[in-house]
Amino acid sequence: MRDHASPIPPARRRRLRSWSSGQEPWQLQDPAGRQQLLDLASNDYLGLSRHPDVLAAATEAMASDGVGAGGSRLITGTRPRHLELEEALAAWLGRDRVLLFPSGFQANIAAVTALSDRHTTVLVDRLIHHSLLTGVRTSGARLQRFAHNDLKDLDQRLQRLKAATTQPTTPPLVVTESLFSMEGTSPDLNGIADLCAHHGAQLLVDEAHGLGVLGPGGCGLCHGLQQPVALVCGTFGKAFGSGGAFLAGDHTTMERLLQTSGAFRYTTALAPPLVAAAQAALHLIQTNPTWGTELSQRSKRWRTALTKQGWAEPPGRGPVLPLLIGDDQDALDLQQRLEKAGLLSVAIRPPTVPEGTARLRLVLRRDLPDGTLEQLLTALCAR
Predict the structure, then answer these.
(1) Residues 206, 207, 223, 345: which is the catalytic one?
(2) In the annotation, is 43 catalytic?
(3) 177, 183, 207, 328: which is the annotated catalytic residue?
(4) Are 247 and 97 in contact (CB under 8 A)?
(5) What is the CATH number of domain 16-40+290-381?
(6) Domain 52-287 classification at class level
(7) Is 183 a catalytic residue?
């Protein structure tokens, strides 16, 4: 029997590691080594996954509504809390309507297929998330990739597309993210929106890693942008500390999703405890509007300190700080060195990132204890 995994180089092989909760919310414990590590790897940016209010809300919902929804949203899966969360998110984001999805991958596929078909050209940032590329393939649309966060390249491609199209049946679709999870970078969304408006394109923005962290009060970088933003994608598995996802848009687009999207119609509704946890997290974010700003300020201090130590300054301004290593094995070696120093930061290698750009992905959390940066710098110096 052929071993399909054998061509993968050892330094690129993946393996599953099991982690248990540590003694503190910012810790993870390796069951094999019984080692407590500071979590610099997960996307729990605001530390809400174990917040008492979030846990209490999920526990109450499980007792009253059950663990699972038991059906799709159009059969028996909708609970009052689903509608309440959708209305609260729409108001918070300044959008007409929101629909919940069980996962971000699912929501992104639904978003792309709702806005494109085989007659559409979709222009995506070269470093876009895999789920969005899957959505393009599912829709049958023509795919073009523009250089990462490069407005000039996007403008030129939109110009060429307009010149080559005499009678477009559907407008082109531009797809980007507000915070690229492996790069730590954010685009000039205002500039992209202006280009889309000028060239008659729709804009789809994945705010999965930006919501709760970036924008006014954590509302994301799309806040205040209306046309040509057709849909905003968001997840609860990052800053919200829960699970599931949503799409936000205008009444027409959201009604079309409700009536035609298989990714929404033909799946069990988001579990009530996750809905309740997201409701509690949203309330915490709204009542603590400076959390995201404070986290960005802390990340700026980390970037400055890493630069002073000789590292290339991690790009961006949010809580994701990639340390570019280059070689796969070197990145794995550095990961292991940090683990020995009590820090968990996972080496990211191709195909998740481009060839030759293996990196250590440092992620800041709001609840990291004082002294974490000093501990990190000491570990990085031990080369």
Answers:
(1) 206
(2) yes
(3) 177
(4) no
(5) 3.90.1150.10
(6) alpha beta
(7) no
Active site residue 190: no
Q: How far apart are CA 318 and CA 243, in angstroms?
A: 21
Tell me if domain 16-40+290-381 and domain 52-287 are identical in fold: no
Q: Which of 181, 242, 261, 299 is catalytic?
A: 181
Query: How far is 275 from 296, CA to CA, in rounded Å?
Result: 27
Look up 294 and say whether it is catalytic: no
Pick the catalytic residue: 51, 129, 199, 223? 129
Domain boundaries, the chain: 16-40+290-381, 52-287
Instruction: Give me the tens of pLDDT residue by residue for the chain, a chain 383 residues long.
Output: 344 555 777 777 777 676 677 767 767 777 666 678 899 999 999 999 999 999 999 999 999 999 999 999 999 999 999 999 999 999 999 999 999 999 999 999 999 999 999 999 999 999 999 999 999 999 999 999 999 999 999 999 999 998 887 666 789 999 999 999 999 999 999 999 999 999 999 999 999 999 999 999 999 999 999 889 999 999 999 999 999 999 999 999 999 999 999 999 999 999 999 999 999 999 999 999 999 999 999 999 999 999 999 999 999 989 999 999 999 999 999 999 999 999 999 999 998 898 999 999 999 999 999 999 999 999 998 65
User: Residue 361: what are its φ and ψ, rounded to 5°?
Assistant: -100, 105
Q: Is 177 a catalytic residue?
A: yes
Q: Model's pTM, two decimal places?
A: 0.92
CA-to-CA dists, residue 295 to 77, 114, 232, 366, angstroms: 36, 34, 23, 6
88 with 97: CB under 8 angstroms?
no
199 has catalytic annotation: no
Is 181 noted as a catalytic residue in this protein? Answer: yes
